[in-house]
User: What shape does this take?
Amino acid sequence: MTPQPPPYRTGKKVAVVGSGPSGLAAAAQLNKAGHLVTVYERNDRIGGLLMYGIPTMKLSKKVVQRRVDLMAAEGITFKTNMTIGDDISSHDLTEEYDAVVLCIGSTRPRDLPIKGRHLEGIHTAMTFLEGWQKKQMGNDIDHVDAKGKDVIVIGGGDTGVDCIGTSLRLDAKSVTTFEILDQPPPTRAANNPWPTWPRVFKVDYAHEEVKLRQNKDPRNFNILSDEFLNDGNGNVSGIQTMQVSWKREPTGRFTMEKCSGSEKTFKADLVLLAMGFLGPENRIINELEIKQDARTNIETATGKYKTSVPKVYAAGDCRRGQSLIVHAINEGRQAAREVDRDLMGETSLAGPGGVVYTPGKKVVRPTDEIYKPLLASLA
Assistant: This one.
């Protein structure tokens, strides 16, 4: 791949806050449109979730860095170790730039505030994953080590799976996971027809790896964590649990009931909380007084990316909630298109599906002169 800098510059300046998949996608498109783009990242490397959230065995960091280097060569400015609110204020950004795109993710982890939560050895999933990734990349830091430990992962999503796989690679003694919901059926249930998302029992890469090593699937379904147990020295030594059952009410709502007499203790030296995320961190949102929706995500009009604050846009998980990387990339691209249109009056950036949609008018840009011979030959 070779850098393809834009053939002209509009003179408009855009700041992108956050360098995860939505931030990088927005920056790439805005730069392609000829704007001067600066990406602010609070961590020590560019990439966000791509760099520190997804383990290396799933996504090589050389691939991520290759793309970042390419974008830098195309004219995008990256600033690391920059925390908005400390190193530069949110209001300074809005004054200095013609537009600000917030791609700050959904990074507030869901906690488990039960008895014993204060004990040593209980960590959020991202603390575990990010610390080990940084250690592999040469950072001189202490990290949460699973070597020789009985590890329990609470939560059954993709992040939990990555905690399982990483624990195995750190030579954990054993790995067990808890899921509070019922075990899904092997095939679609009657109330889960195509084309709805298939709620069926799935085996991911880390589940297979544990089964090969421990001769059993690591998952325990219908498990409620009731108390973290103390070894007497302030360290976690296990989890007291109960079985639960789920019943559907006439209204369609499911309620959880504890199963009497089902108490069980699981041994654990390390507990990783991978129960999802609650929404974006509020510092920038509060400083700029941006409106939020009922789920605390940044509020925008349906299908739009402009926030309640002039010149400020939002894209990715901070706007739509925790989701997939492909959705974050799409959000970043479409937010960039909206920014470009607002700054220039029209846009030639691709819309959904990669389609360039400019109803009723021809987009006139300096590049028209460059492409005029080609357009004439096609007429």
